[in-house]
Design brief:
By secondary structure, the protein is α/β, with parallel strands linked by helices. It has 17 helices and 14 strands.
Length: 435
C-alpha cells in the first residue's frame, strides 16, 4: 500500500518505519528540514529501542523522507496525520499543526484518499478535518477521514505497534475503516471499528484511566508510609484480582512524558466545554504533582537541611528506555535541590544530552559511581536497568553517607540493609524517627 505519514516525532517515525517494515511503500513528511536531512542520512533523532534498526532496514527500499507534503499526498492512498498536539495555556490540546496539515492535504489532493488522524486530538476533530478539506480542496475529489488513535509507549513503541493489544479505527463510512484495517491485517491483532467520535474518546479515556490508576496507587503508598505497610506487597495482593490487574500499580514519583499529563488535562477541558465537568481527573493531576513534593519532603526528613548536602541523582528521563524529558519528575526535584543550595551530580544513560539546557548549577557524571562520589544520598528518579545491578559495596565505599532514597522502589529494604545502607522507598513502610 502507498502510505504517507505526516510528522516524524515518536508516533510518526515509529508508525512510518514499521508500516514500511510490513511491506508498504511509505513516505514520511516533516516541515523540519534539518530533521529530514538527518533521517535521509540514517540519523534517527530520538532514542527508541529497535527503531534505528527498522529505519535502516527499510531506507531506500520502502521508506523515504521528505519535506514535500504535496508530493507525498499526491503519491499516496492513505495519509496519516501524526503531528504534535501540545497542551495550550489552558490545558486544551493545541490543534494548530493538525489544521495546517489538513489545509496542505486539501491543496494537493488529486484523487480519492483516506486521511487518518493518528495524533491525539479533541473529540470531533475528524469533523473539523473534513470541513477544512471540503473548504480548501477541489470540489470533484472524494475522501474519507478516519480516526486511528495510537497506543504507543515510549521505550517499547516499536513492539507496541507491531504487537498491539488492539487497533481502534473510527470512521463515518465502514468501508473506509475496513480499508485502513487492511494495513494492520498482518499483525493479527483485535480490530475495533467504531464511529469517529468514539474512537477519539477511546484514546483519551484509556490514558486518563491509566493515569488515575497510577495516582491511586501513589495515594495508597502515602498511606502505607503513614501506617507502616509496604505498598509493593499491597499492590501484589491487589494484582491477583483479574478485575484490577498489576499493570500501572507501581508506586513512585508519578507519571510524566508527552501523553498522560497532556491527555488528562485535555480531557478535563473537553468536559468543561461540554458542560460535563470531571471531578476525579483534576485530583489525579494534583496527586501526581504532589508526589514530587512529598519526595522532596522525604529527602529533608532523611538528611536534614539540604544546604551544603551532596546528592547523586540517578535518572533524568521521565521513564527508562527513552531520552524524553517532558514532564519528568527530575524537572521539579533537581531545581528544588539546587534552590535549597544543595550540590547535585546527575547521571542518566541516554538523556544527558537533552538535559544540558534544562538544568543550572549541577554537574553531569559519566556513570552512577562518579555521581555518588562523596554523596550524602543517592536519589533514584528513573528505574533504568543499569541501576539494578550496581556494586553496592563499591557504592557504599564512595559515599559520605550510605543513604539511598528510591523514588521508583527499585530495591528491597533487605537487600540494601544487608549492605549497610539506610534505604527509603515510596510507601515501603519506613516509620522514620524524625525527632
Amino acid at each position: 500500500m502507498r502510505i504517507a505519514v505526516v510528522g516524524t516525532g515518536y508516533v510518526g517515525l515509529v508508525t512510518g518505519s514499521c508500516f514500511a517494515d510490513l511491506g508498504n511503500q511509505v513516505i514520511c513528511v516533516d516541515v523540519d528540514r534539518k530533521k529530514i536531512k538527518g533521517l535521509q542520512k540514517g540519523v534517527v533523532p530520538i532514542f527508541e529501542p529497535g527503531l534505528e534498526e527498522v529505519v535502516h532496514r527499510n531506507m531506500g527500499k520502502r521508506l523515504t523522507f521528505t519535506t514535500d507534503l504535496g508530493k507525498a499526498v499526491q503519491q499516496s492512498d492513505f495519509i496519516f496525520i501524526a503531528v504534535s498536539t501540545p497542551p495550550g495555556k489552558d490545558g486544551e490540546a493545541d490543534i494548530t499543526n493538525v489544521k495546517a496539515v489538513a489545509r496542505g492535504i486539501a491543496k494537493n489532493i488529486n484523487r480519492y484518499k483516506i486521511i487518518i488522524n493518528k495524533s491525539t486530538v479533541p473529540i470531533g476533530m475528524g469533523d473539523v478535518v473534513t470541513q477544512i478539506i471540503i473548504k480548501n480542496g477541489p470540489k470533484d475529489v472524494t475522501f474519507d477521514v478516519v480516526s486511528n488513535p495510537e497506543f504507543l509507549r515510549e521505550g517499547s513503541a516499536v513492539t507496541d505497534l507491531l504487537r498491539p493489544d488492539r487497533v481502534v479505527i473510527g470512521a463515518t463510512r465502514r468501508s473506509a475503516a475496513q480499508k485502513v484495517a487492511e494495513i494492520y491485517k498482518p499483525l493479527n491483532s483485535p480490530i475495533v471499528i467504531t464511529d469517529l467520535k468514539s474512537a477519539e474518546m477511546i484514546k483519551y479515556a484509556s490514558n486518563a484511566f491509566l493515569a488515575t490508576k497510577i495516582s491511586f496507587i501513589n495515594e495508597i503508598a502515602n498511606l502505607c508510609d503513614a501506617v507502616g505497610a509496604d505498598v509493593r506487597q499491597v499492590a501484589k495482593g491487589m494484582a491477583y484480582d483479574p478485575r484490577i490487574g498489576g499493570q500501572f500499580l507501581n508506586a513512585g514519583l508519578g507519571f510524566g512524558g508527552s501523553c498522560f499529563p497532556k491527555d488528562v488535562s485535555a480531557l478535563v477541558k473537553i468536559g468543561q466545554k461540554n458542560h460535563s465537568s470531571f471531578r476525579i481527573l483534576p485530583q489525579v493531576m494534583d496527586v501526581n504533582q504532589r508526589q514530587r513534593q512529598l519526595f522532596l519532603e522525604k529527602i529533608r526528613r532523611v538528611v536534614g537541611p539540604l544546604e551544603g548536602k551532596v546528592f547523586a541523582v540517578w535518572g533524568l528521563s521521565f521513564k527508562p528506555n527513552t531520552d524524553d524529558m517532558r514532564e519528568a519528575p527530575s524537572l521539579t526535584i533537581v531545581p528544588a535541590l539546587v534552590k535549597a543550595k544543595a550540590r547535585v551530580r546527575v547521571y542518566d544513560p541516554v538523556a544527558m544530552e537533552k538535559s544540558h539546557g534544562l538544568f543550572k548549577r549541577i554537574k553531569f557524571a559519566k556513570n552512577p559511581y562518579e555521581a555518588a562520589q562523596g554523596a550524602d544520598a543517592v536519589l533514584i528518579l528513573t528505574e533504568w536497568n543499569e541501576f539494578k545491578q550496581v556494586d553496592l559495596k563499591k557504592l557504599k565505599g564512595m559515599m559520605k553517607h550510605a543513604v539511598v532514597i528510591d523514588g521508583r522502589n527499585m530495591y528491597s529494604n533487605e537487600e540494601l540493609s544487608d549492605e549497610g545502607f539506610a534505604y527509603y522507598g515510596m510507601g515501603r513502610g519506613e516509620v522514620l524517627d524524625f525527632g
